What we know:
By secondary structure, the chain is an alpha/beta fold. The protein has four domains: about 5-45; about 70-230, Jelly Rolls; about 240-325, Immunoglobulins (Immunoglobulin-like, Sandwich); about 345-625, Glycosidases (TIM Barrel, Alpha-Beta Barrel), CATH 3.20.20. The chain has nine helices and 32 strands. It starts with 6 loop residues before the first helix and ends with a helix. Mean pLDDT is about 90; it is low at about 1-30, about 35-40 and about 45-50.
Amino acid sequence: MNRGGDTRVCRTGTRLGARAQSLLHNEPRTIRAAQFALLALGLALCSAQGDAGVPRPEHPQPQLVRDTWLNLNGEWQFEFDDKDAGLRENWGTSGRPLSRKITVPYCFEASLSGIGDTSFHPVVWYRRSLALPGDWKGRRVLLHFGAVDYRASVWVNGQLAGSHEGGHVPFAFEITPLLTTGENIIIVRAEDPPTDRYIPRGKQYWEPKSRGIYYSRTTGIWQTVWLEAVGPSYISSVRMTPDLGRGAMQFDFRVDHPAPETEIFLEVSFQGRRRAVGLAAAEEMRAAAVVIVPGAQAWSPATPNLYDVTFELRRAGRTLDRVRSYFGLRRVAVERGRVFLNNRPTYLKMVLDQGYWPQSNLTPPTDEALQCDVRLTKEMGFNGARKHQKVEDPRYLYWADKMGLLVSSEMANAQLFDERYAAAFTREWIEAVERDYNHPSVIIWAPINESWGAPDLRNPAQQMHLKSLYALTRSLDSTRLVIDNEGWEHTDATDLFALHDYARTGELLYQKYKSLDSGELPNNSRGALVPGFEYNGTPFLLSEYGGIAYVPEGAKVPSEAWGYSGVEKSAEAALERYRGLTKAIVKIPAFAGYCYTQLTDVEQEVNGLLTYDRKPKYDVKAIYAINNP
């Protein structure tokens, strides 16, 4: 049982899950009953409150798990530094206590932080003390941050451990030389200029109050902070590349502080049984091995087969480091106007998911909340999610891997372009791709949405930025599809031709796109192509449509409630529009799939199939039937 879960909820979930699994092993006619038993489980998990002691207690990086780790979430000292006096007054080194308290990993704008202040505070400080476990003596110690928005500097016992820029990606410092016996003090300064539109911030609004499609900000620490004890040499990263045709997995390791006569032993298991072993020489910083898996089982949404793998870094018979991970074998390609998964055409039925929560903004409140979102997405008949304008928590991708959900992964964008933005954005995007490379659920990379950060594509520098991001991403990962510009203004460098259209009715949508396969490219807010470029023959994907707004009777109506084409007065009217739009899309042969806007309401935007607190607005069986007629 997950340490963060409510015992009663988990017991309920166990009973419902067992019922669903029993149904799934029966005849096909019982499969829908199984799916709706799983829906009940998902709704139960949504209500889990978590452990009152340590928020988000689960391991934050499920693809690189060591047993020797210490979660630093919970109460920290905290201070607003609106005059930016902390650096001048040496707050990082002086031992000065901070006057407030905050619950990490929730940002100060979120109520779960214990503060809930949504006004501008561009500089904030954190402080906490800790003692290391006694059995960590003599080991190297790493200090990890899941994400700090946007710039962070970290001191340990008054000495600068390091700095990082990029609000959506992880970073770590080895702090062994800075530690002392007994109490240790960690201090973090975070800077996030709220009105700087050149910073990649996604949907975080640069004005004081959220409006339209822009929402409350997330400043400072917003993902788990943890310590990890490692050996004198240790595995700092592993990159796992599947070769489904051979039933093989390529492992590429980075080893920190390598030593002579060191090797990495790999053991692969499936459903508790050992299936393969491997060995890699690790005398230098890089090491590699290929492991053939007998009778390899492919990963897909219908059969999310995952293999467990253990890596042991050994020298002279002694284990220096031991890491647990997992992988899935699958192949993604585009062929004959379709997306192919494991050599079979797969129609993408995705939902746009922005990953916000009412009490915690960008931070998932609990691990159960992430399970809930993945489960409800599947129960409504979608086979994928487009994670929009956010590099999502790794635990979401873990549950997508485990439960079987395709993911289009997107970077949080800036609004404006200059050369400093281009450099900062590119660095952070590289780190995002590196972080999530091993997740089998991720099948699409989309660095840019609707020309955000490159708003004037008549400008040759911005055109080259767009094309270079495609080429860069393909150079980092040749196993997935890459979209150059989600929604419009494509170049000739894209693997999917993604379009966004919020036509009100299915008939309007059908008339607009019925001749798409003949090369007629309609314009929406902007042209489908950047001037001077031609369509390159890749599959079409309607990656935003619908946006049907509805507030259920009795629900609290947000001030400035907003939706595409107004707000419907009844669930029946909203559902009929959804049905008509989706039926029109699947009648258009040029489309290789769709993505409906959106999974949940977010603040004033009420386009969700679920309310902001994850309650279904419509009969879930009806949504499932529309996606699976």
